[in-house]
C-alpha cells in the first residue's frame, strides 16, 4: 500500500470506474455517520429501530424514526465531492456508484448509475405483495399496503439479507472495473465490506479515501487521507 496525500490520479486513464461510498461520503452534507463520533448507532439502539423484529413489534415507532431521518436528510445538500462524481459522469462514459448510503444524495447531485446496496429511505415495500413504492418527503405518504399490512422502508436493516439481485449486479460490475475508489466507509458491515477485496482480486487499482484508517486500509493500493468534499484535489479528469 502506498500512503499519500498528494496523489493526483487522472481518471481519464481508466476505462471502467467505480466509486464505492459509505456514510462518510454524506457526512459533510450534514448526514450523520453510523459509527464515528455523533454516529447514529451511538444515539439510537438499532435493536429498537432498525431490524424486522423491532418493526413487527412496534411499526409506528420504527416508521417515526425513519421519518426523523428523512426530515434531517432533506435539510442536507450534496457537496463538492458528490458534484465531482456527477460532473465526471458527464465526461466519462463508464462511471458506476455502488453506495451503502440510503440518503439518495448522489442522485440529488445528478449522478446516474447508482447501485444502492442497502436500499433507500425514499422507497417503501410490502414483501407479501411484492409492492415497491417511491415515497419522497418528510412524512410517509402511505404506510399501509392494500393488503392491510404496514409497508416497510426498503432498507437493509440489521439481520436482513441484501437483495441478491442488487448484490450480484454490484459484484458483476466490480469484476470488470479498472479502478475502484472507496470513499467514507469503515468497512465494518458485511457483505459490502468484501467488495474492495473483490475489486483487488479482479485486478482493479484500488484507492481508499478516508480521514481515518480503516480495517480494510491495508488492501488498497493507495490510501488518501482526505475528506470526501476534497476529492477534486486528488482525483482529476484530463485527456
Ligand atoms: P460508518 O459510520 O461505519 O463509517 C463512516 C466512515 O466515514 C468512517 O470510516 C469515517 O472515518 C469516514 N468519514 C467520516 N467523515 C468523513 C468525511 N468527511 N469524508 C470521508 N470519510 C469520512 O459508515 P458505513 O461504512 O457507511 O447500514 O456503514 C456501513 C453500514 O453500516 C451503513 O450502510 C448502515 C450501517 O449500519 C445500514 O443501514 C443497513
Task: Give your account of this protein's structure.
The protein has two domains: 1-30 and 78-118 and 162-239, Rossmann fold, CATH 3.40.50.1220; 32-75 and 121-155, SIR2/SIRT2 'Small Domain' (2-Layer Sandwich). The strands form three sheets. The protein has a seven-stranded parallel sheet, sandwiched between helices. The chain is built from nine helices and twelve strands. The model has no long low-confidence stretch (mean pLDDT 95). The protein is α/β, with parallel strands linked by helices. Residues 22-24, 27-28, 33-36, 39, 100, 118, 156, 183-186, 188-189, 210-212, 214, 227-228 line the site of 2'-O-acetyl adenosine-5-diphosphoribose (OAD).
Give a summary of the structure in a few sentences.
The chain is of the alpha/beta class and 239 residues long.
> What is the first-to-last residue Cα distance?
27 Å
Number of domains: 2
Let me know the CATH homologous superfamily of the largest domain.
Answer: TPP-binding domain
Helix percentage? 25-40%
Q: What spatial order of strands do you see in the largest sheet?
A: 1-11-10-9-3-4-5
